[in-house]
Amino acid sequence: MNQTIISQKQFFIFTFMYTVGSAIILAPHILAKVTEQDAWLSVIIGGLIGLLPALLFHWIGQQLKEEDFFGMIQTVFGRVVGKMVIFLYVSFFIFLSALLLREIGDFISAIILVSTPRYVTNLLMFLIICMGVFYGIEVVARAAEVLFPWIIILFLPMFIFLIPEFQWDYLLPVLKNGFSPVFEGAFLYFTFPLELITLVVLYPIINKHKQIKKTFLFGLLIGTGLILIVTLYSILVLGPDLSSRNLYPTFTLAKKVNVANFFQRLEVFMAGVWIITIYVKLAVTFYVSAIGIAKLTSLEDYRKILLGLGAVLLALAEFISPDTSAFYDFATGPASILISIYGLMIPIIIAIIMKIGKRKKEKGK
């Protein structure tokens, strides 16, 4: 784990894709359901507040000099409690992987391969991810570097050709229901940046450590900016009502592009963007889960457990919720609370204990 294998550019792309990930398709629907036409305000507030845990994650990552994230947890909490916390974090990363796999599986089965069972699409997606992770995180990083320009290329036509479809009245009245729904939506969006705790595990293998803070925050800001634009487009083109009722408003948004009855059907491009971002996000999360289990079991090669871990992941993704509607209720309810615990509360506790330990060492000198 100590060998430098990820460049600053690759880490920026990881951060960007992790921020965009599932939010690019789901955020407009989730936020419009709560805040209606004020969904864009929730993205701004949640995104700005999300910078604070990102700074916390960076500080924790900067402390990983001679050991990895899981080793640091054992140092902070002690051998016995540390093992328990590592187990909890590994469980969380597996749970997060299952959520992501279920999201993309539901999308592909409901929109693209309608007649194909979800477990088949999940299996195919997992095999592609498993192949990348088997060859190492550096292979996933190179793949992300190659795929990144295509996200911009696939998005640009939609952004340009939908401008004439804007209905500015859809944004009014601002704060129709007051600040309460906006802050509720901001909390829901705030849970997306909290998932970046996963990237802290990669800190020891990134080069030029002094530049990581700028790269990390820049990736988060650019990703949040893209979510803000997509949310605004959803409200301005589809309206708050359709955005809240449609599970995949960004996909529906792409259907609206029609230039002279020739340049149309861009929803395939949007599906491609989401599959790319989810692939990278899921590959990183799955890799981190495997690394955590290897650390917990003192296994030298994480590759030996990929298939077994994959079986658990596939089963969990399938049985996590009975149907798509119940799944999204779960994702915006109990799952948000879990992400807040592992992405905010425990990192704060870790940081406090590390600070106290540093001060004791300084006084001892």
TrEMBL record:
Membrane topology: Multi-pass membrane protein
Pfam families: Spore_permease (PF03845)
Domain of life: Bacteria
Main location: membrane
Alphabetized InterPro entries for the sequence: Spore_GerAB
Localization in the cell: Membrane
Record-annotated membrane-spanning stretches: 12-32, 38-60, 80-101, 107-135, 147-166, 186-206, 218-239, 268-293, 305-322, 334-356
UniProt keyword annotations, A-Z: Germination, Membrane, Transmembrane, Transmembrane helix, Transport
Family membership: Belongs to the amino acid-polyamine-organocation (APC) superfamily. Spore germination protein (SGP) (TC 2.A.3.9) family.
Protein name: Spore germination protein KB
Species per Swiss-Prot/TrEMBL record: Aquibacillus albus
Taxonomic lineage of the native organism: Bacteria, Bacillati, Bacillota, Bacilli, Bacillales
